[in-house]
Amino acid sequence: MLLHCASGRHTTMLAAAAARSATRTVTVSTRRHMSVRPEEPKPKPSSADTNALNQPPVPRKKVTLSTLSSMNAKKTPITMITAYDYPTALACSSTPLTDITLIGDSLAQVCLGLPSTTQLTLDEMIHHSRAVTRGTTHPLLVADMPFGSYQVSSERALLNALRLIKEAHVEAVKLEGGAEIAPTVRRLVDAGIPVMAHIGLQPQKHTSLSGYKVQGRSVESARRLIHDALALQEAGAFSTVVEAVPRELGKYVTEQLKIPTIGIGAGPWTSGQVLVLNDLLGTWSGHKAKFVRRFANLKDVRDAGIHKYAEAVRDQSFPDPETESYTIDPRVWERFLEAEQKDGRGI
Ligand SMILES: Nc1nc(=O)c2c([nH]1)NC[C@@H]1CN(c3ccc(C(=O)N[C@@H](CCC(=O)O)C(=O)O)cc3)CN21
Ligand SMILES: CC(C)C(=O)C(=O)O
Q1: How far apart are CA 140 and CA 142, in angstroms?
Q2: Which CATH number is 65-299's, of 3.50.50.60, 3.20.20.60, 3.40.50.2300, 3.40.50.300?
Q3: What is the pLDDT of residues 88-104, one digit of tens each?
Q4: Is 320 exposed, middle or buried (0-12, 13-18, 19+ CB in 10 A)?
Q5: How far is the CA of 336 from the centre of ligand 1 (A)?
Q6: Can you tell me the ipTM of this complex?
Q7: What's the longest Cα–Cα distance across the chain?
Q8: Which of 36, 77, 129, 272 has the fewest CB neighbours in a 10 Å radius?
């Protein structure tokens, strides 16, 4: 809320500033070309045209739960992307087409270098979520509840979810699990916390499941997925992630539910899609699951930039003395050297 009041006020201030500078432009150009009708003034882009988040404002109102249900009713695909810090949050907010920013517990692997998500703590999640909140504008902000933060009891789950709301300022939480966590989902929803469910492949259970495997490939497993999905919807989840299931099952579960499904490796017929930011930008050089598409190859661009910088330092072509460093008044420099000489130093 605060963020939005502040950015609203900022927009008004920007508009006023633009109007003032527009008036100046008109006066100048009429004087120069007396008989020529002044062109429509175009305010020069300046640092004042970026908002408090250091990037141009994106024309999109805050995404709410009701935005998502109307998108679902109109069958407009929902886009969700993960973010882990301030710059990645800004990246997610840079297009009006992002609907949800998720602080995924993939944070453990792609940012903290841990071997799996199970080691991530709630404190680490809160620390990163606070940074993501600062860089998020219109997308609905959802944070994963780390492994262990919601399994002990519904009460503990509620206390921990409240920490994410109050300390990290996220708007909703996501929990992995099926019908067994429905009472916990209900408890959170009853307290006023929007909950996103996560069914199918549940990476937090990779140890007990002996790896990351496609789910719902047997009659029993596919039926369990539908049972879980319905139980979580009934418990009040506003949406569910569906991970790594056959595309037919992704479509079927979407048709059975009223709430939107956000697929990852669940085929093209879910209500929306989610990918890990580092996977889609091509900055993650670890394991690439079958469902990952690289929409950019930033790793090569990034590493080439790092190499060029280091090379330029080595060969002393950086920094350029004229354009990339500062000057001092020669008379001041002269006096400085004289003073130094008096003290027995200098050149
Ligand atoms: N970078 C990254 N991207 C992710 O999507 C992701 C993470 N990290 N970390 C947390 C979880 C782990 N996830 C994973 C991890 C591995 C597979 C995987 O290797 N799946 C196999 C399925 C093989 C099969 O059963 O047929 C694959 O080959 O796609 C899937 C999802 C999704 N999440
Ligand atoms: C991949 C998404 C759905 C996730 O849960 C994560 O980033 O941890």
Answers
A1: 6
A2: 3.20.20.60
A3: 999 999 999 999 999 99
A4: exposed
A5: 63
A6: 0.98
A7: 92
A8: 36
